[in-house]
Amino acid sequence: MNALSSKSGAAADFLCNSHGFSELLIDANKQREHETSRKEAEDKSRLPALEAAYTCILRELGEDMDRQGLLRTPLRAAKAMQFLTKGYHETVDDILNNAIFDEDHDEMVIVKDIDMFSLCEHHLVPFFGKVHIGYIPNKKVVGLSKLARIVEIYSRRLQVQERLTKQVALGISEALQPKGVAVVIEAVHMCMIMRGVQKMNSRTVTSTMLGVYLEDPKTREEFLMLSQSN
Length: 230
Ligand SMILES: [Zn+2]
Hints:
The chain is 51% helix and 21% strand. By secondary structure, the chain is an alpha+beta fold. Helix 2 packs antiparallel against helix 3, helix 3 packs across helix 4 (73-84) and helix 6 crosses helix 7 (161-176).
């Protein structure tokens, strides 16, 4: 016992104490709560500068900053922007903690029509649409709702659709080490619809294929067929 106790850190605690595992989980949760409150404090401390910046932008656009409807707009816009970019503070590890299960399932798993809202990093206006994800497990599966959370981590940032697609695929790939991952995103970009070319109905489709989806055309086709069907 002494030999074990003299080992430092979490591993030793785990070996010494039959309740060690749950304590470790509680520790991890406490750590996350701590990070969340630190993040909230940081967001708060940045609000005045963001608010001032939005006041400046609106004034330079010719707005009367004393008119009633705009009185709290800079603050609201600042908070909205912090929310829309909160994915920078989140990681796949945070989300998947406790949600990866050992499972002898090696058939394709598909979750389609995941809603996605993001901001185009070139114009700071929204692009949004649907994400379809497929993966072939390699002894590990993840709670299905977590795939939507992974999409959120990367979409709540300033993005381009191509990078978003790749980041979602790589995030899943690194976390689950599956035999393959396929991600397809269909989106409309407000920067195309509201300005410039004003193509009302144009949709942009991007895809990332990893592992067997890349190597085996039949697997890829099966995913594309299943993800497009209603
Ligand atoms: Zn754009």
